[in-house]
Amino acid sequence: MAFEGLGERLQQTLQKIKGKGKVTEADVKEMMREVRFALIEADVNLKVVKEFVKKVSERAVGSDVMQSLTPGQQVVKIVRDELAELMGGETEAITFAKKPPTVIMMVGLQGAGKTTTTGKLANLIRKKYNRKPLLAAADVYRPAAIQQLETIGKQLGMPVFQLGTEADPVDIAKQAVAKAKEDHNDVVFIDTAGRLQIDEDLMQELRNIHDAVKPDEVYLVVDAMTGQVAANVAETFDQQVGVTGVVLTKLDGDTRGGAALSIRSVTGKPIKFAGMGEKLDALEPFHPERMASRILG
Ligand code: GDP
C-alpha cells in the first residue's frame, strides 16, 4: 500500500493533539516538528516541506482554532486540507478539442509506465467519455515499444497506427492525426519515446512533435517510486516541452509519498491520474482530498 509509513507517522502525531480541549503554540510546534520529519522521511522535496509546515503552523495558531471548542480536531482538519491542497486541490478534467480529434501526447522516461498508461487512459476515455481512440506508436527507438502498443491495442480492441522503426516520429504523429480524421477516431494518443535519462535529443524530438500536431494535452507519466526525483523530472519536461498534466504510476506499490506530495508544488501542474496496477483497467482519476484522507486514515 502506498504512503503506509507516512500515514502511520502522521496518524500517530495527530492522535496526540486530536482530543485536546486546549492547544498551545508549543503543542503546535511539537506536532509540526514530527510532521516535518515524517514528510522528509517520505522523500518530499525540502522546500515543499518548509512551506507546508509554515502554512499549517500559521493556520493552526490562528485565533479561530485557539478559541474553538474542539481545537485539536481543527488542527487535524487543517493538516488534512493542506495535504490535499499540496496534491492539487480540486480534481481537474481532461481538455477535449472543440473540433475532433483531441490529440493527447504521452511523454516520460523509459520504464515510467508510459506505454501501459497510454492503453489504460485510452480505455478509461472510451468507457467514461464514450470516445473512440486511436493509438499511435511514435517510439521508434525501442523496438519492443511498437509491439507492446500493438498488443495493448489488440487487448482493448483499439486501432494502432505505426510506420515501423525507420519512420520519423514527427511524420508518424502527423499521419496518425490525419488517419484519425479519416477513420473518425475522436482521440489520438501519441506514445512518444522515452530515455533512461533526460537528454537534449529527446527533448528536441518531443518539441518537434508538439509543434507539428499541437496537442490538446501533454501528459507526463512518472513513476511514484522515484520519490521527489519525479518532481524534478516533471519540472524539466514542463520547461522543455510543456506539460498539461501528470500521471503518477505504481501507486499500488509501497511508494513513500514524495512524488505525490512534491510534484504539484514544484511544477504547478496537476496530477490528473493515478496508476494502480499493471492491468489495463488499473487507472483512476487522482483525487487529492481522497488521497489526503487515505494518508491520514
Ligand atoms: P514505458 O517504458 O514508460 O513505456 O513503460 P511501460 O509501459 O513499458 O511500463 C514499465 C513497467 O511498469 C511494466 O512492467 C508495466 O506493467 C509497469 N507498470 C506501469 N504502470 C504501472 C502501475 O500503475 N502499477 C504497477 N504495479 N506497474 C505498472
From TrEMBL:
Keywords per UniProt: Cytoplasm, GTP-binding, Hydrolase, Nucleotide-binding, Ribonucleoprotein, RNA-binding, Signal recognition particle
Task: Give the EC number(s) listed in the UniProt record.
Answer: 3.6.5.4
Query: What terms describe the molecular function in GO for this protein?
Result: 7S RNA binding; GTP binding; GTPase activity
Q: Which reaction does it catalyse?
A: GTP + H2O = GDP + phosphate + H(+)
Q: Which residues bind GTP?
A: 108-115, 191-195, 249-252
Q: Name one GO biological process term.
A: SRP-dependent cotranslational protein targeting to membrane
Cellular component (GO) terms are: signal recognition particle
- The chain positions of domain SRP54-type proteins GTP-binding read 270-283
Can you say where in the cell this protein is located?
A: Cytoplasm
Q: Which domain of life is it from?
A: Bacteria
Keyword check for S-adenosyl-L-methionine: no
Identify its protein family.
Answer: Belongs to the GTP-binding SRP family. SRP54 subfamily.
Task performed by this protein: Involved in targeting and insertion of nascent membrane proteins into the cytoplasmic membrane. Binds to the hydrophobic signal sequence of the ribosome-nascent chain (RNC) as it emerges from the ribosomes. The SRP-RNC complex is then targeted to the cytoplasmic membrane where it interacts with the SRP receptor FtsY. Interaction with FtsY leads to the transfer of the RNC complex to the Sec translocase for insertion into the membrane, the hydrolysis of GTP by both Ffh and FtsY, and the dissociation of the SRP-FtsY complex into the individual components.
The record's comment about this protein's domains reads: Composed of three domains: the N-terminal N domain, which is responsible for interactions with the ribosome, the central G domain, which binds GTP, and the C-terminal M domain, which binds the RNA and the signal sequence of the RNC.
According to the record's subunit comment, the protein's assembly and interactions are: Part of the signal recognition particle protein translocation system, which is composed of SRP and FtsY.
What is this protein called in UniProt? Signal recognition particle protein
